[in-house]
Write a structure and sequence with these properties.
about 230 residues; Arc Repressor Mutant, subunit A; five-stranded parallel sheet; four-stranded antiparallel sheet; 11 strands; elongated
């Protein structure tokens, strides 16, 4: 799960990056609206955490532009403005949620999880492939309802594969979903993560297939009963 934080207060931004990274999200940070617009156009994000008082292009302008372009990315507004008119304007422009500064990190993370459930899993049901299940919002993977232990990157990799079950995902797309701008992963590292995850989910009936020259695909194994 990849998040973009758009916040010009570096104290707040750095705290959010640390907390959300520790919660196993891939997180990028920009300080103004124009940088955010370029980032959203160039990369794929699952959610934007957006301050309103930004230089060059404020949060309302950015939000309005995204919705005019039919971009349905989840947007959580962060602002020091407490007036009802600001809240109403943001929601009318298409914000998904609104949190007033100062805030508690626990509440922000709960709102992030709730927005993920709404945007990715409208019915709140876990993703499933064979006997493998993934609760995206709570970052829990299980086989036959028994939790399995996965690292943060393995969880993000599994989510990326399960969101597009039966479809080929290129290595470049996997790399983008696992890393923020300050990190890089080579082809060999991706292969190592695929190998580790493949072994851990093997008992579930879900299989990660290598499509040579193209990427990887998650599919349910078909049992031969003859």
């Amino acid at each position: 799960m990849r998040l973009l934080i758009v916040e010009d207060d570096l104290v707040i931004a750095n705290g959010l990056v640390r907390a959300l990274t520790q919660s196993q999200y891939a997180v990028d940070h920009v300080t103004d609206g124009k940088q955010a617009l370029r980032a959203i156009q160039d990369d794929v994000y699952d959610m934007v955490i957006l301050d309103l008082g930004l230089p060059t292009m404020d949060g309302m302008q950015l939000l309005s532009h995204l919705r005019q372009q039919a971009n349905a990315i989840a947007v959580l507004i962060l602002t020091a403005r407490e007036d009802v008119a600001t809240r109403v304007q943001a929601l009318d422009l298409g914000a998904d949620d609104f949190l007033t500064k100062p805030f508690h990190l626990e509440e922000l993370e709960a709102r992030v999880r709730a927005l993920i459930r709404r945007s990715k899993l409208g019915n709140n049901l876990p993703l499933q492939c064979g006997n493998l299940k993934l609760d995206v919002a709570n970052k829990l993977a299980s086989i036959n309802d028994q939790l399995i232990t996965l690292s943060a990157r393995e969880l993000n990799l599994l989510e990326t594969l399960m969101m597009r079950m039966g479809k080929i995902i290129a290595k470049e797309q996997i790399m983008e979903s696992l890393c923020n701008w300050d990190e890089t992963l080579g082809d060999n590292a991706i292969e190592v993560y695929i190998h580790r995850l493949r072994k851990k989910i093997e008992p579930s009936g879900a299989h990660i297939r290598t499509v040579r020259g193209l990427g990887y695909m998650l599919e349910a194994e078909h049992l031969n009963l003859s």
